[in-house]
Every structure is written in structure tokens, then in C-alpha cells.
Amino acid sequence: MKTERYAETGEQDVADGATLADAAYGRLRRDIITSVRAPGERLRIEKLKSIYQIGPTPLREAMQKLAQDGLVVSEGNRGFTVAPLDPAEFKDLNLARTVIEKEALRLSIEQGDDAWEARVVAAGYIMAKEDAALMKAQGHVPDSWERANSGLHLALVSACGSAWLLKLRGGLHDLCERYRRASVYQKIGARDLTAEHAAIVDATLARNADLACRLIEEHFALTASALAASRENAGTVERDKK
Amino acid sequence: MKTERYAETGEQDVADGATLADAAYGRLRRDIITSVRAPGERLRIEKLKSIYQIGPTPLREAMQKLAQDGLVVSEGNRGFTVAPLDPAEFKDLNLARTVIEKEALRLSIEQGDDAWEARVVAAGYIMAKEDAALMKAQGHVPDSWERANSGLHLALVSACGSAWLLKLRGGLHDLCERYRRASVYQKIGARDLTAEHAAIVDATLARNADLACRLIEEHFALTASALAASRENAGTVERDKK
DNA sequence: AAACCTAACAATGTCGAGAAAATGAAACTC
DNA sequence: GAGTTTCATTTTCTCGACATTGTTAGGTTT
Fold first, then answer.
1. C24 C1' – B47 CA distance, angstroms?
2. Among the four A124, B40, B80, B203, which has the fewest Cβ within 10 Å?
3. Which domains does chain B have, with CATH numbers?
4. Which of A19, A62, A65 sits opposite B77 (nearest CB)?
């Protein structure tokens, strides 16, 4: 049973679950987050059947789960569509995410043990490398950077001890990641991501909860405003792929 | 299209959605929250088919959504069961819920308008009556009290302006309500619920966010400890209904 | 007693048919 | 000509039967 790794919600074995419904869920989830399936795109079962080589029953079950996640919109008797990207929703999403992430980080700093510190250090090390590579080679944000970023933020909160906080956080993280990946990221060079991440890691390892929470909040806010700015050029997309 | 009202998550039209899958979801959800379906109970599609008079396809879709909510556990190729009641999970649940509810309350107090104040006053009025009735007639907690309680807490946070905070809050509220309804509530008389609720309403209307949040936190903590205490008599249930 | 095999059972997935609803086009009315 | 109604087409949703796969328990063998 290979663990292919896609987004981050480490709950499912992803794209290879025990049942076809789980597999469909994982693959569709990844495809939606990475914008392989565009926002607003209609998700007709017949079409998906041939794309993923999976029957209609597991596909429908996967859609219902995705709708519950907020990645897919289920309209009465009009089928399913990929959830649209709405700047207002992202602002809201970011707010909720910040609330949860800050609390989880605070708890992690309170309760984290040596193994947790090691995880944070390791994730921070990877992140620093990816940040450096990103700032050198401007332009496209590679998957490896997204993985490192998810990994670092997950490591930071991984000792919070609350399965539910982590679950909620994971869902919100994935939703936000979709917004991030869909945007152009033109101003990513203007930020010193390496410094931002390093500051968060340092404050965390120093067990300075107040500072770490403040930094995380600013970190998220900066991403949000960068996203809002980059949207001024490209309007919100709401296509209908045939 | 009658809006039958069940728990509180006002998202679905409940038990009467446009599609049978939605209807099944709403009815099962209500039945699980109200402990009509006992924790740990196996949910065999064949059985549910005859109970709810709905085919297997929409039933399975409903189960997947419920599994996503955390009300149902989906095990590999071994079908579905009602999620067990685990004291440790309730503690965790309560923690996450408190975090979100406090933030939503704070935002509501910041942004709430006159209509919101009116909603809080109205919900507080109903709640006071139900609290009084409950303390007089000890024992069973009626549905009308649960409705009033849900209504009050929803009214309090309803002006927070964040759809996602409200959505997350709703899900956690329902999960917590199941724990509450499943427990014996023997010590409910020891608490002056009327006073607790009144204090929260007063602090909220006075726009005293810090006090209101503190009171809400205590309110939830008291419920949690009362629940933990009442469990000492009756052990955790994990039945297997044939 | 432990490991293995086998048979019964349960869950999952596929398929095709049919009902209900939505969409779009044509005809009709004002 | 604008707006509405009617009708046909398409799509979604649902059902039931069946095939497949996985799980479990009991019995056999070593």
C-alpha cells in the first residue's frame, strides 16, 4: 500500500484507498486543489467515469464527501461543480484558519516534547532550502515548495494534542492551498519568506507562544493580501469546461 | 417545502431535501444526534433501506457525508457504524468548539447590529423560560430546551460575519449535543443555568467581549465536567445492536 | 496449540432501466 | 416584438439485481 502523498490531510491513503470511493475521493481532491479541475467546472459523472475509470456509485460518494469539505458544490438536481474561487470567501477562510492555527500552535508550544522539536527543526530545514530555491528561480511555485510549506506548518502544530483542531486545520489548509495555487504569485519575491519562516520556527522553539502566534497571524495576513493584490490583474475565473 | 428543523446546522432543509440522499442524510443525522441510533450500532444498508424506505445508493451517499462529519465511522470493507462516544474525544471536541465559539462571539459583539441584538434578546427570553421549566421539572431534558439552547448560542454568534466560522461551529455544536443528550444529566439541578445564560446575554448586549468570552468558556467547561462526572456511574457504551 | 484452508457472509462496485427534474427551443399570446 | 407557455431533450437521480472482492469464523492439518 503505497502512500503517494498529495496535499497534506494525512488522514487518507490518498488516491489508493482501500475502496474505490476513497480512491476517487483522494484523486479528485488532489485534482481540485491543484486546479487540474478548474473552479466552476461541471463535474459530470459520465465524464469522470471515463477519466478515472471508476463507476458512478463510488464517484457519487466521493462527490458527496468533497461537497461536505467545501471543495465541490452540490446543487439540487443539477449535479456537481467545482467550488468557485471567491475573494471574499478566501478572506473568511483565512480568518477561520488563523483562529484555529494560532490556538493549535499555542497548545503545541505548551505541550510539545523533544520529538516535536526535532520535527519542527527538520521541517524548518527543508523549508529554508525550498524558500531559497524559490527566491532564486522566480516564477512557478513547485510542488516541492508546497509540500515543504504544508509540512512545516503541520509540524508546528503537530503537538497540540487535539485531533479535532488538527482535522479542522487540515481541511482549511487544503482549501486555502487551492486559492494559493490558483493565483499568480507575482509578488512572491517581494516577501522574505525565508525570514518569515525562520522567525516563526525560532519563536516556537523558544516556546514564546505569544510571539509565535503573532508571527503566524502576520504570515497568513501577508499571504492573503498578496493574493488579493494579484487578483486585480486576473479576474475571478468561473469557466464551464465542456 | 416545509423546514422541519432538527438539530441546528441550518444548512440543509433537513429530512426533506431536494434529493433522497439529502433527506436520508438529514434523517440519519438527527437520529444519531438524538441517540435514536445508539453509539457503536452497525448501520447496515439493507436494514436502513427498510427503515427509511430509501434505496441503497442515496443511503450510501448519506453515510459518506456523515462519516465526513464524524458522526459515523466508515471502516474499510466492513461497513458503517455510529461513531462511539469517547470521553476523551468529548474533551477534545469541547476544546475546539470553545476556541471557535469564543472568536465568533467576539466578532459578533464587534459587528452586531440592532437586528442581531433583537435576535439575542428574543433567544434569551425563550431560553430563560426553558431553563425555568427545566429546573422545576427535574429529570428528562426536553427537545424544546435543546432547541432553545441551540437557538441562543446560534443567535449570539450569528453576527460574526464569517460563514466558515459558523459552519465549523455548527458541526462541532451538533457533535457536542449528541454527547449531552446521551448522558444522564443528573446534576443539572446543581447548576443555575438561568443565571449562566442571563450573564452571557447581558455581557454580550453590553458589548463586553472579554467578559462574554470568559463566561462562554466557563459555561462550556461546566457542561463538560458535569458530563464527565455523570459518566462515572454509567460506563461508556459501545453496543452492537443486531 | 498454531497455522492454514475453506466456506459462508457482508460489503463494494457495476450495469441498465426508469422516474423526476431542469434546460432549451418552438409556438403562442398580448 | 416581448414575454409567456408548452413541449421535447437532456441530465440527474434512484432503484434493483448481480458480480466481485474482502472479511470472518470454523474446522482441519501439522
1. 42
2. B40
3. 20-82 (1.10.10.10), 87-230 (1.20.120.530)
4. A19
